[in-house]
Design goal:
Blueprint: H1 8-11, E1 18-21, E2 24-27, H2 39-66
Antiparallel strand pairs: 1-2
Length: about 80
Amino acid sequence: YIGDTPHNDLLSSTTNPIHSFADDSTLHAGIMSNRPISVVELECRRLAVAASLSKDLDTITAWGLKNMVKFNASKT
């Protein structure tokens, strides 16, 4: 819970997995293949992963605004 809001609704609303502990969270994404892929296919997959992460960050930001949670985007 964050306040009175279960954060599980956030964790289940992203495409990529989020790992959270205390006040820290990490969003993960990767490119996997069981066969060699071409440079063109790799670039397409990379762009798809980047778009997926961007969408998840938008979802997380919207969730934070809705639930009055301020995230520190510059923290690494």
